[in-house]
Amino acid sequence: MSTPELISPRSARVAAARRLGKRNFRGKDRLFLAEGPQAVREAAAHRAAGQATLTELFTTVEAAERYADIIGAARDAGARVHLASDEVIADISTTVTPQGLVGVCRFLDTPFADILAARPKLVAVLAHVRDPGNAGTVLRCADAAGAEAVVLTDASVDLYNPKAVRASVGSLFHLPVAVGVPVEQAIESLTAAGVRVLAADGAGDRDLDAELDEGTMGGPTAWVFGNEAWGLPEETRALADAVVRVPIHGSAESLNLATAAAVCLYASARAQRASGGCRSVTQSQ
């Protein structure tokens, strides 16, 4: 390591990083924390608007030796790397068992207008989702299913909540995410852009299996997922093209939000990649 000294726990840099655990400071500084090797690796590789996303990295000596490739990538990205004691990492980290790497990153959300302009084929809309773990997991599912964007409405959890960032396991850095969009605006704008909007709801009058059997899911699609406790309000369901339920073939009372989102997004991904689906048409051109 070319940085010769451990950074002091009383350093202004440590204090500035520590305060990013709170939402008001994240918003003021437009910075957030990414913890652990996977998140830091993805942050180091990410750039937006010509800028590197990772600005600083705090690492223990042990982690720097173990993840030398990540340290090198962080330096290549122009990030300032600080050697830190376990005490400093624990002070900055929001996890019970830190992994020795904590990165400071610039905000990277994308304007909703830019998402619409890209004519996405598959979008996840989180409407009034309050649990950061659920939000991050749905983002990860959307990334895995090949979605091209995620939208968090204005009443949803902070995208940069440390738990949401951890739950995304790096997917936050892989696809565009718009934040603070009113749910009505999101649905109406997606509809106007030619995207079929499906509201996921356990009481939906359409069945996901029937949608697949009838071949209605091959085109551009946005799934709207509601609050963990009360789902989607009637006024939101009324804006969608259809309200779709995931069939329960066993005795389970319901599926949790992230599981239902994974099922719905993968159903769309499969339909779009089938013969005649919009992904197949796109890929053949």
Describe the structure.
41% of the residues lie in helices and 20% in strands. The chain has 285 residues and is an alpha/beta fold. The strands form three sheets. It has a seven-stranded parallel sheet. It has a four-stranded mixed sheet with strand order 1-6-4-5. β7 (122-126), α8 (132-144) and β8 (149-153) form a beta-alpha-beta unit. α3 runs parallel beside α5, α8 packs parallel to α9 (162-168) and α8 runs parallel beside α13 (257-273). The longest helix has 17 residues, at 257-273. The model is unreliable at 281-285 (pLDDT under 50).
Give the strand line-up of the largest sheet.
9-8-7-12-10-13-11
Q: What are the segments in which pLDDT stays under 50 over at least 5 consecutive residues?
A: 281-285
Cα separation of the termini: 49 Å
- The string of secondary-structure elements, in order, is HHEHEEEHHEHEHEHEHEHEEHEHEHH
Strand content: 15-25%
**Over the alpha carbons, how many angstroms does the gyration radius reach?**
20 Å
Q: Specify the oligomeric state.
A: single chain
The whole-number mean of residue pLDDT values reads 92
Quick one: biggest sheet? 7 strands, parallel
Annotation keywords:
285 residues; four-stranded mixed sheet; 20% strand; disordered C terminus
Secondary structure blueprint with pairings:
Layout: H1 12-18, H2 23-29, E1 31-35, H3 37-45, E2 47-48, E3 51-52, E4 54-59, H4 61-66, H5 68-76, E5 80-83, H6 86-92, E6 101-106, H7 112-117, E7 122-126, H8 132-144, E8 149-153, H9 162-168, E9 177-181, H10 183-192, E10 196-200, E11 206-207, H11 208-213, E12 221-225, H12 234-239, E13 242-245, H13 257-273, H14 278-284
